[in-house]
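sorry for the late reply, my laptop died twice this morning and i had to redo everyting from scratch. anyway the thing you sent over, i finally got around to it. pasting the sequence first so we're on the same page, its 475 residues, then the predicted structure underneath. double check i copied it right bc i was rushing
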Amino acid sequence: MAESTRETRISRYIGLYSAESTITHAKSSLRLFLGSALGRKLIAETLEAAGEQYFAERRDYQTDVETFFKSIRKYAPKSINMILSFVKGFLGRNGVKFDEYYWRDLKGKHKGLKGNRPLTEDQAPTPEILRKILQFLPLHGRAFALAASSSGMRLGESLRLKLSDIELDKEPVRIHIRREYTKSGLARPSFLSKEAVDVLREWLKVREKWLQAASRKSHLYPKGARDERVFPFSHGTVYAMWHAALAKSGYSDKDPTTGIYKYHFHTLRKYFRSRLPRGGVPVDVTQGIMGEEGYLSAEYRRLKDDPETMAKMYKQGEPYLAVFSNQTEMHEFREETKGLRQQVQDLKERLQQQEEKVKRGNIKYQVETSLNETLTSALSIGNTTPEAPQSGLQPVSDNRRRSQGDSQKSARSKPVQSVSLRLRKFTLISQDAHLGQPLPRLQCSRTSSFHARLRCILRKRSETCGSEISQEVGP
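ok and here's the structure:
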């Protein structure tokens, strides 16, 4: 009986899918459809019972489908197509079939369903906008967002990631996205940037404490629960953190048609798609890393089996994924200022040369000024003949004066070091000073010419005076 209880219409249909993401979308679509038909909101625990009740009643299935279609018209075209696909499959598996014309005509009633174009006018955030948003996220939210923006993973893939799926010892850090995580059911590799890894390591340090605290206050985690996921929380927790950060950062604008945030969490994949190719990574390789199987090319399929080459290509575009430290701008800034730094260095060298020239010119000017002052002082001393009785000093002899003149002529051309030696020739000699020489020699040299002239004068006067006296006294 227990076996028959587990085997329901819902479980049989859901059992056809293997990818967890597909199973999640299928259950969500059927909850919306059955809830619309039965007139009540359904949860995961009541879904299977609602499926049995729906087919137990006599209902107008076509009316139910059309009524449900009207209720989801506000959804994005891609979402509407996905939901109707699951509803169509579920009804068909249980004997309710409509021809293909009916489904095409139904979709044709929606203006935007001619293709899978998104209805919301969203846009990829810039590094500056994303940096402001992440600043208002808690540590686990910031680590989750950076992991998504640097790897291109979908929200569901990131939440299913386990610790054993990450190789932290690789460069760059590698992620093994298992087939049961992906939308397509195919496994693929991806990578994390250094920036994301730094924040992830900080989160892993407190992850166990956070999990234990969450298990005590949440019905989702029994006390003492062990969760192997890297990010042990739900979609609702991610959306709550992200929307709160949008409001606090001032980027909570919504699309006027759908009411969806312009910078919703899915735009982190757009950020990855728009930034990685700037580093030279081929677009098809970028989309292959993101898991967009419709864009897979032969080149990507070849590289998929060569993880080393893919890692090198990822590192080539990694600087352009940076959020908090924009390595791209720094690289461009270094390139732009390389020439300026060389110019600055050249200017410094030229300035040093000019300073040396000015310094040498100042020294030369000071030497010439000092020499001129010294020579001027020496010449003024040499041209002065002080009176011996008043000063007690006597000038040097004429012979020495002539030698002084010769010294003055040569003083302008000789080095400054000899000025002090030459000044001794201009020094006035005191009567009482020996200056290390015998006094008689000094007196002889001092009075030789002066006394000769004095004796001549006295002799002439004596002769004149003698003749006059003899005349007056003569007989």
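The chain has a mean pLDDT of 77.
thats about all i looked at so far, will dig more tmrw
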